[in-house]
Hints:
Blueprint: H1 9-26, H2 29-32, H3 34-45, H4 53-68
Amino acid sequence: MTQYDLKNPTQLKIKERMDKLQEWMESNYHLKNPDKVNELILSVSKFWSVLQEEDIDYIQGAKYAIEEQLEWNV
């Protein structure tokens, strides 16, 4: 699991958005609301240069699941 410095405002934003993305993906919310999930991904992706590799992998997997309309069974 990614470790965040919760005293750092940017890291806190990333954590909150990644938590929400994980919640949405695990509930397969992306199948009914792909645009909304893509908006959330964009809001995290603006921090791409400071994202940890684990978060980048998760985002890329989520994008693929949205594009291919796949259930999220991770």
